[in-house]
Amino acid sequence: MSTRSAATKILRGSLSTTPAPGAAGSPGSFHLPLRKLVIEYCESNPSSAGTRQFLRSTVPAWARSHPSVEVVVRQRPSLHPVLRGFYANGRSKEICVKNLEGNGVEATLKKLRDDSGAKTKSLKRIPVESKAESARGIWSALHGAR
């Protein structure tokens, strides 16, 4: 194993982080649920062009303005670019940003930043709960009119 590949290889266990002991609980401070952001791209793949432009122009300023988020930039040769967000609740989200321009990658990054990390819940078919009884009573085939 060469020293170059050892330096760029990120172990799976190192992708999950935990907040610092006094940082998250200190009064008067707000920390984003996003703990770690991993940006993976290819240096030569045309689908990563917008991501490369975004890395050169926006990422350094974004990282300085969000000190509570660890930013990792990693190359993935011959693969499409991906943004991965690791959250304080232990969940992670991964979004492919292939063929997006720099502003599209930035919009995806904002989506990851503003997300809570909770599992997406469907708002359809939520059972209706009422404190009052039904005006018609409970229907049953066994208690029909005689």
UniProtKB/TrEMBL annotation:
InterPro entries assigned to the protein according to its UniProt record, in alphabetical order: Ribosomal_mL43 (IPR039927), Ribosomal_mL43/mS25/NADH_DH (IPR007741), Thioredoxin-like_sf (IPR036249)
Record protein name field: Large ribosomal subunit protein mL43
GO biological-process terms attached to the record: mitochondrial translation
Species this chain originates from: Pseudozyma flocculosa
Compartments it resides in: Mitochondrion
GO molecular function, a single term: structural constituent of ribosome
Region (Disordered): 1-27
Signal peptide range: none
Keywords of the record: Mitochondrion, Ribonucleoprotein, Ribosomal protein
Main localization category: mitochondrion
GO cellular component, one term: mitochondrial large ribosomal subunit
Sequence similarity: Belongs to the mitochondrion-specific ribosomal protein mL43 family.
Keyword Thylakoid included in the entry's annotation: no
Residue ranges annotated for the Ribosomal protein/NADH dehydrogenase domain, each copy included: 43-116
